[in-house]
Amino acid sequence: MTDRQIVPAPPDTVAVAVAAVSDTGGRPNNEDVAIALALPEAADGGNPDYLLAVADGMGGHAAGELASRLAIETLEKIVRGGGDDAADLLKRAFRSANEAIAAAAVGDAAGMGTTLTAALLRGRYATVASVGDSRAYLLRAGGLTQITRDHTLVAEQVARGELPPAAARTSPQRNVLTHVLGGRPRLEKDLPPIYELTLLPEDRLLLCTDGFHDVLEQRDFVDVLRQATPDEAAARLVALAKERATTDNVSAVVAVATPTRVAAAPLPAAAGRGVPWQLVAIVVAVIVALVVLVAVVGGVVP
Ligand code: CA
Questions:
Q1: How far is ligand 1, taken at its centre, from the CA of residue 212, in Å?
Q2: Over 60: is that where the pLDDT of 222 sits?
Q3: N or C: which end of the chain has fewer CB within 10 A?
């Protein structure tokens, strides 16, 4: 006999809808991969988990496509294998993906690598991991926040206060990466960084590759994300990048959180709130009567 009590978890307050679009954009072939998967449903019949990811491969002779595909396949395999701790699961997946790419980087594929940005959504909890310069953004209450930090030379210079953020956007070195998957046989031990957030109803999460960075402004992301379904938003962002002549592949994964229950506590009856108007009227009448009485008495008896 134990005195521990099992407290049921609160029901999820958000459900999630997701979509992924990847396009060659301004290039003949696509080295990006983007996924938005519902994982097998929970045994209790609750909402499924979702795995979202974008990968942007690099390397000659189709090696970039191989690297991004290996990263996504390894990620999916490890995450489908399951694990209670989302951060540990993503770290393990990134390490395995790095090893798989490094092991395959021989012959024509020597030197290949890829970025990988992934989000595991469990109920209202989102766990994000990223290596490279693909990004995760959160749109909440009309404000767009970049969740991930780029592994680029210029981002590190900005973090050290050596370069203004505006200069980083136009620097000729803006595409120089400091970390990728596959670059070394083992991933550095502090990688990938993990970012955790709790989704609120109406939040929008965006994962995207760097094909957008040069051609879309923050307000473009806000305008498209806030008024569209995930499918429409992902497709519209990609179309917009192409209209603006991106020279790169473009991939967008969008998740939208919607409320699953409404806090419908009944409003108290009107009569029960505040001070009744009759009481206010009586108090005002008494005060007026007193003022008049004082004035009259004051006038008669100087
Ligand atoms: Ca790219």
A1: 9
A2: yes
A3: N
